[in-house]
Specification:
The chain is mainly α. The protein has a domain of about 80 residues. Helix content is about 65%, strand content about 0%. The chain contains three helices and no strands. Helix 2 runs antiparallel to helix 3. The radius of gyration is 23 Å and the shape is elongated.
């Protein structure tokens, strides 16, 4: 790629600082995406382990609406926290809720594998 410079030393771009802004924005978005992924994986793993060990004999946790209720509840409880934090947003709360709900569903499927 050939770069041309004007006589006054400028590169000819309309906004030379715009590149830096885009890089900082992309890095911030990648951090937010990583936080959402960590919230999903953490919510899934913690909820699955909790339901498998502590809620093993609670029949309400093994009903059909339980994953939906846990997922919505986790997303609602996480929403004030993500509203305060500057990088993460509503997607992180939704990812946490989805991970928690899927963790409950996974633990429900593993119920027959547990020892009595």
């Amino acid at each position: 790629m050939c770069r041309t410079e004007a006589a006054d030393g400028s590169t000819g771009r309309a906004n030379p600082a715009g590149t830096r802004y885009r890089i900082v924005t992309m890095i911030t978005e990648l951090i937010a995406l990583g936080a959402a992924g960590a919230a999903f994986v953490g919510g899934f793993g913690w909820t699955r382990n909790f339901v498998r060990t502590r809620m093993r004999f609670v029949d309400a946790m093994h009903s059909k609406p339980a994953p939906w209720l846990v997922g919505v509840g986790a997303a609602i409880l996480a929403s004030p926290v993500v509203a305060i934090l500057p990088i993460v947003g509503a997607g992180t709360a939704i990812a946490l809720g989805a991970g928690a709900g899927l963790g409950v569903k996974s633990a429900q499927r593993d119920r027959h594998l547990l020892e009595p």
